Amino acid sequence: MDAFFASVEQRDNPELRGKPVAVGGSSKRGVVAAASYEARAFGVRSAMPSVTAQRQCPDLIFVKPRFEAYRTVSRQIRDIFARHTDLIQPLSLDEAYLDVTNDKQGIGSAVKIAKAIRAAIRAETGLTASAGVSYNKFIAKLASDQNKPDGLCVILPEQGAEFVAGLPVRRFHGVGPRTAEKMAKLGVHTGADLAQKDEAWLAHHFGSWGSYLFKAARGIDDGPVNANSVRKSLGGELTYFDDKRSEDELREALDEIIDIVWDRIERYQARGKTLVLKARYSDFRTITRSRTVPHILADRAEFAQLGHALLDQILPAEMGIRLLGLTLGSLVDESGSGEDMPGQGRFAFDAIED
Fold first, then answer.
1. What are the φ/ψ torsions at residue 245 (nearest 5 degrees)?
2. Which residues pair with 216 in a beta bridge?
3. Which HAMAP family does the UniProt entry name for this protein (predicted)?
4. pLDDT tens per residue, range 119-128
5. Burial label, 132 (beta-carbon count in 10 A; 0-12, 13-18, 19+)
């Protein structure tokens, strides 16, 4: 989807259309969750501190996130996908892989299916989507970003290696700023640079990830579209305008997070054995504390008790804490057999307090 959160806000509020919009908190502690294309023209990007975004775009309009609205639209879009294929692997609320080999409507062309899906999304949600059509997941994902917004990019098998060669390595899925910086120091800036390195060299510098990079640089990806990907964790976190220091206010803050996360646990019928507490101090140092129990955490009281026991481990917090979060991990099926619980990707939710 194109600038998904921001586009939903502009759709639902005509006064925001054509204006630079950022979804997120506008406070000094706020973070941009999504930016409209009008805002992106000023360099505003997701994960950017709100103060920086406001500096770059003085007319930027901040809108608080409405995650339930985004989830509703996401379900509409997935229903559209399901008309064409059963092999759908969601990556997030606004992005998914589709394997259309088994074409449910008999359209007979992946390109035509992509066009039909984009047209249906526009007609039924009032939003635009961009699609990448190719012979594997890696290339399709790269192609989906190539002609945004409201674009379509098709990469044929004989074009894959050349297409990848011309891209900066930062575009590769999984290559973040730090990895890109490391690659730059090693003289690797593009897919073509990466393709010149043999697998042993890549393994030496990037460990087990070297094999992925070796194949990716050549346009190779054998991974299937997994419609039954494993849901590994579910959680939530809050960022605070003022640092939390006293034990009382931290316990009160944790109780609020417990309410948020347990509501989501119940909604998705998730059960797990591991609870992780995340805390970020005022200097942005982030720590985690976790505990795994031998049985599934199916009781809210025990979930809350365990959360507070983890909080005990980081008290006192004299420096002050700007973020708290809880995540339930090691998810299992309802039978308690200990098997991984099937789901649609990894569920993670962030809430930013304005």
1. -125, -45
2. none
3. DNApol_IV
4. 999 999 999 9
5. buried
Is the bond preceding residue 14 a cis peptide, omega within 30 degrees?
no
CATH of the domain at 129: 3.30.70.270
- Residue 38's SS3 state is helix
CATH number of the CATH domain containing 57 = 3.40.1170.60
> What residues are designated binding site for Mg(2+)?
94
Q: Does 124 lie in the same domain as 104?
A: yes
Based on the domain organization, do 38 and 143 belong to the same domain? Answer: no
Residue given tokens 């925001």 in the structure block: 16
Q: Are residues 57 and 83 in the same domain?
A: no
Q: Is 252 exposed, middle or buried (0-12, 13-18, 19+ CB in 10 A)?
A: exposed
Domain annotation covers residue 223: no
Q: What are the tens digits of pLDDT across the range 278-302?
A: 999 988 889 999 999 998 888 889 9
> CA 235, CA 32: separation in Å to the nearest integer?
20
221: in domain: no
Question: What values do phi and psi take at 175, rounded to 5?
Answer: -90, 105
CB 229 within 8 A of CB 92: no
How far apart, in whole angstroms, are the C-alpha atoms of residue 20 and residue 37? 7
CA distance 150 to 134: 17
- Report the candidate in 308, 301, 235 with the shortest Cα–Cα distance to residue 272: 235
Residue bearing tokens 């982030």: 286
Both tokens of residue 171? 């575009």
Q: How far apart are CA 14 and CA 77, in angstroms?
A: 22
Cβ count near 176 (within 10 Å): 9
Measure the CA–CA gap between 134 and 154, rounded to whole angstroms.
Answer: 6
What is the value of pTM for the model shown? 0.72
Look at residue 181 and give its three-state secondary structure: helix
The dihedral sign for the CA sequence 59, 47, 275, 267: positive
Binding-site residues from annotation: 94
